[in-house]
Design brief:
single chain, alpha/beta, Rossmann fold, 6-stranded parallel sheet, 3-stranded antiparallel sheet, 15 strands, globular, binds uridine-diphosphate-N-acetylglucosamine, NAD(P)-bd_dom_sf, dTDP-L-rhamnose 4-epimerase, Epimerase_deHydtase, Lipid_A_modif_metabolic_enz
Amino acid sequence: MTRVLVTGSAGFIGSHVVEALEAHGHEVTGLDLRSGADVRDAALLARLLPGTDVVVHQAAKVGLGVDVADLPDYASINVYGTAVLLAAMAAHDVERLVLASSMVVYGEGAYDCARHGRVRPGPRSAEDMARGSFEPRCPRCGDEMALATIGEDAPTDPRNAYATTKLAQEHLAANWARETGGTAVALRYHNVYGPRMPRDTPYSGVAAIFRSALEAGRAPRVFEDGGQTRDFVHVRDVAEANVAALTGGAPGTLAVYNIASGEPHTVGELAAALAAQRGGQEPVTTGEYRMGDVRHIVAAPHRAEAELGFRARVGFAEGMKEFATAPPA
Ligand code: UD1
C-alpha cells in the first residue's frame, strides 16, 4: 500500500486516476481547485504532504489556449504550481513524483524522407494551408514523406502556451530529481478520451467537440481533409499507466514515457466512429484549419510497456462505442 496525493483529483483524468489507485489498494488523498484546494498553496501542501509516499500531479490548466491573455494563467497554474509543489515535496521528504505530461511537447510528428532520412518539420506555412496542402513536406527538399512513430528521445518542439508549460513542468521535475535524489516519472499522454470528458469548450479536445456536436444534433466538423493522425487513448488506460508509474523510474532522474494506445487513427475516422455509434448527423469535412495544429503525431508506446509494464487495453472501436453515449462531466 502506497500513500498517494493526487493533485487535480476532481478532473477528468485525475478522477479516474483516483479510482484506479484505490482499486489497486492504495491510500489516496485528493487536492483540487474545484473544491478550493490550490496546488500553489504552500501552507496547504505543508499540511497534506507529511506521510505521503508519492505525488501524482494531474492539476493543470489544459487545452490549447485561446489567446495570449491566457499566458499568465498557464504559467501560474502549470509552472509556478509545479514549482511550489516540488519545493514542498523536498521540504517534507516526499521522494517520488508522477507527472501528467503531454504529447504536445513534441510539436509535429516524425517523418522519413526517402532522401534525407528522419526529419521533424516545422510549422506548416499559411500559404500551404490556404491552398489545402496539409501534408508537411521534407524541410530540406520539399518532397513528400512517410509518417514515422515518435519516441521519447525525439527533440521537443512546444508550439503553444500549454505545450510550453508542460515541458517546463518536465524540466522542473528533472531539476527536483537531480537536486533531491527523488524519482520523477513523466507520462506524455496522447489524446485522452472517455467517460467524464468535459463538454465542448474552447479548450476541449476534438473527441469531446465531436461528441457534443452529435449530442446537439449537429454534424461533427472535420478540419483539413480529415487525414490528420492522432493516438486516442482511453482514460482508464491512462489511469492504469499512473498506477504502473508508482514503481517506475530511478532515483535522481526524470523518466519519460509516451502513454498511447498504439493504434493511431485519423480525425476523419474518429468522427465516423462517433457518428456511427451515436447516430445523428454524418460528419462534414470542411477544409477549415487552425494554424497551431500539427498534422500527424503518432507515438511509439514501447518504452512504457518495457519499463512500466503498461499496455493500453481499450481498443478504438470498443472505447468509442462507450464514449459516444457515456455521460459527460
Ligand atoms: C490535444 C489537446 C492537447 C493535449 C493533446 C494530448 C486541446 C485543444 N488539445 O491536442 O491539449 O495535450 O490532445 O492529449 O485540448 N479538429 C477538427 N474539428 C474540430 C476540432 C479539432 O477536425 O472541431 C482537428 C484539429 O484540426 C486537429 C485534431 O482535430 O487536427 C486534434 O485537435 P485537438 O484535439 O484540439 O488537439 P491536439 O493537437 O490533438
